[in-house]
Amino acid sequence: MAIVGSGPAGLSAAARAAALGMAHILIEKTDHLSDTIYKYQKGKYVMATPSVLNLRSDFDFEEGIREDILGTWDRQVEEQKVNVRLNAEVTEITGETGNFTIKLKDGSTIEAEAVVLSIGTQGNPNLLRVPGGDKPLVQYQLDDPEEYYDEHITVIGSGDAGIENALGLAKDPKQNNVVSILNRGESFARAKKGNVDALMEAEQEGRVLVRRETSPAEVKDGQLVLETRDGQETIPCNRIIARMGSKPPRDFVEACGIEFTSEDRDAFPKLSPSFETTKSGIHVIGALAGYPLIKHCMNQGHDVIEFLNGNADLKPADEEILEERFAGLPGSKSVDYWLETFNKQVVILQELSPLQMRELMLESRVHSYDKGEVIFERNAEGSSMFAIAEGSVAVEINPADSSITVPIEQGSIFGEVGLISGRKRGSTVRAAEPTICVEFSRNAALKLIATNPSVGRAVNRISIERQLLQMFGSGLTPADIKDLVDKAEVIEARAGQVLVQEGGEDKDVFVVRRGSMIVEKDLGGKPVFLSYLPAGSYFGEMAVIDGSKRTATVKAAVKSQVVKLPGEEFLKVLDAKPKLRERALADMAGRRATNEFVESRKDSFGSAVDMYSQTAQFLVDNGIGEATDVLLIDEKLCVGCDNCEKACADSHDGLSRLNREAGTTYAHLHVPTSCRHCEHPHCMADCPPNAIKRGPDGEVFIDETCIGCGNCQRNCPYGVIRMDAKPPPKPSLLSWLFFGKGPGPGEPSYGWRKKKMEEQEAETGKKPGKFAIKCDMCSGIEGGPSCVRACPTGAAIRVSPERFLSITRFAEETD
Amino acid sequence: MASVPDEKPIGASAIEQRRAADHSSFLTHRKFLWLWVALISCIVTSAIYFSIDVQPRPNGGTWYGYTLGTIGAGLIVWLALLGIRKRNMSEGHWSLKAWTSAHVYLGLSLIVIATLHTGFQLGWNVHTLAYVLMMLVILSGIYGIIAYVRLPQALSDNRKEMTTEMMVEALDSIDGQLRRAAQPLDRHEADTVIAALEQDTFGAGMWRRLTNSYGNCATAAALDAFSGNYDADSAHERVRALLARRKAQLDQIRRHMKIKAMLEVWLFIHIPVTIALLAALTAHIISVFYYW
Ligand SMILES: Cc1cc2nc3c(=O)[nH]c(=O)nc-3n(C[C@H](O)[C@H](O)[C@H](O)COP(=O)(O)OP(=O)(O)OC[C@H]3O[C@@H](n4cnc5c(N)ncnc54)[C@H](O)[C@@H]3O)c2cc1C
Ligand code: HEM
Ligand code: SF4
Ligand code: SF4
Ligand code: SF4
Predict the structure, then answer these.
(1) Domain check: are A98 and A143 in the same one?
(2) What pLDDT band is residue A813 in, cutting at 50, 70 and 90?
C-alpha cells in the first residue's frame, strides 16, 4: 500500500494502515510531514471545522496552534510506527491494480498493490530551468524575510508573491540587503495594484532594483548571469528566490490515468464511493478530492484504508450529519434512500456518483413543504438554487395578482436566476402540493455547474427561459417563447464592451444576465451617462418595436453576460401576445421620456452634466458596477471626525470594518475602503469552510466558521477584508466619560488591544485566533448601518448603484 | 432605451431605508424641517411676549418667564445630550445627522427664547452668567457651522486621496532617501540636512497648527542653504530635490493639520463651556427657587 503525500489525509490513511498491520509506505516530497500546514504562518491558530463532524482517525486533531498540531503528528508517527519516506517526490505511477510501480524523482522505484493519492492542491512551484538552476542558492519559498543580512538577493517572478518577498527583504535598511527583482516583461500586470505601487516606490527610493525585460540565464556560485535587452550581464548574487507560480497537480494526476469530471479548472477527479478513481487501484482523498478541511481529509484517510481492507459496510463519517439533515423529511427513511431518490428524481443530479451526491448534500439543505406554503418571496435576497425531488411548485409571475402562476414539475429546478445574476428573487414560489425540495447553496450549485458540463447546459437553458418568462410576465408560457429561447445566444462581454451603439441599425434585444450595463447618450459630442442597468433588465427593444435607430449606447460596466435575442423572434412573440406588447410599449414610453427630458434640458445642464457623467464613470471604474450596496462619502460634507469608523467598531466587536480615508475620490465623492457587497463576491471563491454567505438584506458576511486562512483577503480586489483578533471588551461609555476608564469610543489603539490581549492570554492560556472580518452591512442591528447613522453631517451614505446612478436623480439633486 | 426590473414592493423600501440613500446634509435635512420648527417657535414665543402684559414687568419670575425658562433649560439639557448621543452607538432608528440638524436650529432658537426669558434684565449675577455662557456656546456653535460648511472641500482637496498614514509614510520614505543622499556632503552641509530631519514635525501646538506658521522650519532653512545652481546629477542637486519634496510633503501635512484643527478648535470652547453652562444653569435654578 503506497500513500503519496503526508498531509492530514495521507497521514491519517497511513496511520490506519499501520493500525491494521498492513504493509504500507507514506511517501512525502519535502523533508517534513504535511507541507501545506507546515507552510502556514508561525503560530497560526488552526481550526477544526465543521464541529458537528466527528473525527475518525488514529491521529489526534483538535483546534490549536500550528506547531502543536504538527508536533502531535510527528510524535504519533513515531508511536504508531508509521512507515514514512521523506524527501521522495513521486514523478510517475504506472502499472495496474496489484502491481503498481511508483517512480521517485531520484530515480528509485517503489512497488505497491494499491495507491492512495493525497497530494493536496498546492502543486509544485515552477522551477528555474537554467544552467545551475539546481544549485542550493536557489529557493522557492521565503518563510521569514528578516532572516537574511548583508546579502545580494535576486527575486525572480513578477506576481504578488515575488513582489511581496522583494519588499519584505528590502523593508528594513538595517538588514543591508541588495534586493533585485527580475521581470521578463515591461509591466507588472499580474500583480495587485497595491503591491505594484509599493514596488515602484521602493524602486524610486532605491531600496529595490527592478530589472525589466530581464530573465535569468545561468546561476553560478555567488553570481547570476542575466539576459537583458542589451545582452548578457552578470551580477553578484548570494541567494535567489524564485516565485514563478506553481503548477496545479492536475497534469501529474491525469498522467497516472485518472479522469477528471470536466475540463474546468475547478474540476476534481471522478471518484467511486470508496474514493477509487477511473484508474482502478488508485484512490484520491483530501483536498485533491475536493475536501479541503483537515477533518474531512483525516476521516477520508481512515475510510479509504478501511474500504481497501474490505470493510464494505463502513458508513461515511458524514452519515450522522446527513441523517440530521434529512430528519425533517416525511416517513423516517434512511440516508441512502434519500440520496438515491434525489439522484434518480432530480434531472440534473442523475449523472452524479454516490460520493458526489454525498458531498453535494453536505453543502445543501432539504425541505418539505405543505401545499400552498411559500418557498421564497419575490424580492427576497437569495442566491441558492432549488430542485424538486417530489411534488411540484407554482411560480407567481404577476406581482399584482397572485393567482396567475406557472407550474414547475418534479425533477426540475428553480431559483437559478438569483444564482446566476446574484440579484433578488424575481417571483414568489409556493408548493403546489406536498413537496420535497433540495436547496443547493450558491457554492455547491456553482461547483456542480462547473464540474458537470451537462448540468451547466441544462441550467443555462432553463435560466434563460425563466428569466424571459419572469421579465415579460403577462401570462406567457414556456411554449410561447420556445423559439426565442432556442435562438437565444449567451454573450460574454468584457468591461467597457459596447453592445448597442447609438445610431446603429441593428435589431436585437438583449437581457442582462450577469453583471451590469451603463447607458450613455451623445450630447454635443460628449457622452452623458443616462442610467445603470443591473442584471435582470433588458434593453434594445425600442429599435425593434418602432424600427428606429438606436437612441443610446449601451456598454458593459463590468465583465458581464448578456442574452442576445434576435429582433424578429422577439417581434413574433409580441405579435402573438398583445398584453406583452402593451407592457413593452409602456416601458418604452418611460425610457423615451428620459431621453426627451435629457434632450430638453441639455442646454441648462451645462458643465454640471459633464461632471455628473464623469462621476458616474469614476464610480463604475471603482467597481460600483458589480456592487449591490456601497458606502460613499460626500467630501463636501465630511468633517473628518471619523465617527463613522468609531460607530462601526463600537457596533462590531471593537474593530472597524471600514477605512474612511483610504480609497479613491472624484469630484469630492469618495469611495472608502469598505465592502461593496458584490453581486458575485470574489471573496467567496476559495473559502475552505464556505464561511462567506449572502444574508437576507443582500449583505455578504463571514460567519463564525471562518478558519482564518486569509484566502478571502487575497481574493477581494477592493482590499476590504482585514485579518484580526477580537479584542476584549472595553469599559462602558459612562465610565470612560466620567472616570476616563478605557480607550473611549471607537476602535481601541493597537497598543491597548495588544496589552489587553496579552493579559487575557495570561489569564486563559489561549491565544485568540485572527479571523477575517469585513462589513456585514450591520445586519441584525436595528436601524441599519451604524456608519451612516453616526455621521453628524450626512456625508456618509450607503447606496445601491441603480438608484444612485440615474440622471433623473441627478436632476432632482441639482434642482 | 431600457428598463430596470421593477422591484419597489415588499421589503425593498425597507432595505432602501436601511441604506439611507437620501443624500442631503444636516443643514438641509428633511427640507429644513428643524429650521422651520425653530423659526416658528421664535415667532410664536415673541408674539406672545409682546402681546401679553405681565405685571409688574416681563422677566423670569412671571408665569410666562417660567414657561420660557423651562423650555430653555430643557432645550439646553437636550442640546448637551448630543455629546452622549454621538458616542453611544446604540441600536435604533436614529441618525446623528437628524440630531445635529435639530441641534443647530433649536440651539439657535435659544437666542430668542432665552433672551425673552430674561425680559432683557441683565446684571452681574449668576443668572446673567448662565446667559452669557449660553451665548458663548452658541457663538462657538455658529463658528462650527461655518467651519463645517466651508472646510470639508479644502480638506478633501488637500488630501489628494492620501490617508494621514500615507502622508507620514511618504515623509518617512523621503527622509530615508535624504539620509542616504546626504552621505557624500561635507560636514557642515550634512548638518543642515540632519537638522531638517531631526526637527519634530508633529509636536507643534494648537496655535501653530491653526495658523500654519512654522517660522523656524529647518527644512525650509536647509532648502535655502541648497539654493545654488547644481549639476543635474550631482549629490547636491539630489539633496536639493529631496529637500524640496520633503518641504512639499510637510506643507501638505501641515495644511491637513491646520484644516483639521480649524474643524475641531471650536469644540474646545463649545464643550467645556457647555459643562460650565450646565453648572451655572443649575446654580441659577436653585438660587431662583431658594429666594422664592
Ligand atoms: C493558509 C491556510 C490556512 C488553512 N487553515 C485551515 C484551518 O484552520 N482548518 C482546516 O481545516 N483547514 C485549513 N486549511 C485547509 C487545509 O490546510 C488543506 O486543505 C489540507 O491541508 C489538505 O490536506 P491534504 O492532505 O489533502 O493535502 P496537503 O495538506 O496539501 O498535503 C499534501 C502533501 O503531499 C505532498 N506532495 C505533493 N506532491 C507530492 C508528490 N508528487 N510526491 C510526494 N509528495 C507530494 C506535499 O508536500 C504535502 O505534504 C488552510 C489552508 C491554507 C492554505
Ligand atoms: C446652549 C446651547 C448649546 C449647547 C449646550 C450645545 C452643546 C453641544 C454639545 C455637548 C455638543 C457635543 C460635542 C461633542 O461631543 O463633540 C455639541 C456639538 C455641536 N454643536 Fe452645540 N450646543 C449648543 C448650541 C449650538 C448651536 C447654536 C450650534 C450652531 C449654530 C451648535 C452646533 C453644534 C455642532 C455643529 C456640533 C457638532 C456636531 C458633531 O460634530 O457631532 N451648537 N453641542
Ligand atoms: S469582501 Fe470584497 S469581494 Fe467580497 S463582497 Fe466585499 S468588496 Fe466584494
Ligand atoms: S454598514 Fe455597519 S459593518 Fe458595514 S461599514 Fe458601516 S458600520 Fe461597519
Ligand atoms: S462620520 Fe461623516 S463627517 Fe465624520 S468622518 Fe465619517 S463621513 Fe466624515
Answers:
(1) no
(2) low
B93 assigned to some structural domain: yes
A150 touches chain B (CB under 8 A): no
Q: Is residue A84 part of a domain?
A: yes
- pLDDT for A76 equals 95
In this structure, the answer to whether residues A556 and A456 fall within a common structural domain is no
pLDDT bin (cut points 50, 70, 90) of residue B12 is very low
Question: d(Cα A113, Cα A160) in Å, to the nearest integer?
Answer: 42
Highest mean pLDDT among A161-175, A273-287, B141-155: B141-155
Domain membership flag for residue B8: no
Q: Identify whether residues A52 and A109 lie together within a single domain.
A: yes
Residue A209 and residue A290 in one domain: no
Helix (H) or strand (E) holding A799: strand A796-799
* Residue A641 sits in the same domain as residue A495: no
User: Into how many domains does chain A fold?
Assistant: 5
- CA atoms in the 13 A half-sphere facing the CB of A53: 25
Q: What is the CATH number of the domain that holds A165?
A: 3.50.50.60
Residues in A closer than 8 angstroms to B172, CB to CB, are none
User: What whole-number distance in Å separates Cα of residue A447 and Cα of residue A441?
Assistant: 10
Q: At what angle do helices B29-51 and B63-80 cross, to 10 degrees?
A: 160
Can you say whether the dihedral through the CA atoms of A205, A208, A211, A212 is positive or negative? negative
* B15 falls within a domain: no
Q: What are phi and psi of B158, to 5 degrees?
A: -70, -35
User: What ligand has the least distance to the C-alpha of B156?
Assistant: 5
Binding-site residues, ligand 3, Cβ < 6 A: A 675-678, 681-683, 700, 716, 718, 720-721, 774
User: Is the Cβ pair A537, B3 closer than 8 Å?
Assistant: yes
DSSP string, A52-119: TSPP-SSS---SEEHHHHHHHHHHHHHHTT--EE-S--EEEEEEETTEEEEEETTS-EEEES-EEE--
Which residue range(s) make up the domain with A41? 2-123+248-317
- Rounded to the nearest angstrom, the distance between the alpha carbon of A760 and the centre of ligand 5 is 33
Is the pTM higher than 0.80? The answer reads no
Lowest mean pLDDT across A232-246, A738-752, A799-813:
A799-813
Amino acid at site B292: W
Residues 781-810 of A with CB under 8 A from B: 781-786, 788-795, 797-800, 802-804
Residues B192 and B131 in one domain: no
Average pLDDT value for residue range A311-325:
84
Smallest CA–CA distance from A510 into chain B, residue: B2
Provide φ and ψ at B196, rounded to 5°: -65, -45
**pLDDT number for residue A592:** 83
Domains held by chain B: number: 2
Residue A615 lies in a domain: no
Nearest atom, ligand 1, residue A49 CA:
11
One domain, residues A98 and A12 = yes
Q: What are A615-648's pLDDT values in tens digits?
A: 888 888 887 888 888 999 999 999 999 999 999 9
**A 374-433: CB under 8 A from B:** 377-380, 399, 423-424, 426
Cβ distance of A784 and B260 shorter than 8 Å: no
pLDDT category at B10 given cuts 50, 70, 90 is: very low
| Residue among A662, A664, A798 whose CB faces B21 most closely | A798
Task: Give me chain A's average pLDDT, please.
Answer: 87
Whether B42 and B152 map to the same domain: the answer is yes
Residues A97 and A56 in one domain: yes
What is the least distance, in Å, from the CA of B17 to any CA of chain A? 8
Structural domain range at position B280: 28-159+267-291
pLDDT of residue A662: 92
Instruction: Indicate whether B191 and B241 sit together in one domain.
Output: yes
Could you identify the residue written with the cell 434525489? A342
Contact A673, A662 (CB under 8 A): yes
Separation CA A177–CA A170 (nearest Å): 6
Interface of A with B in 236-255 (CB under 8 A): none
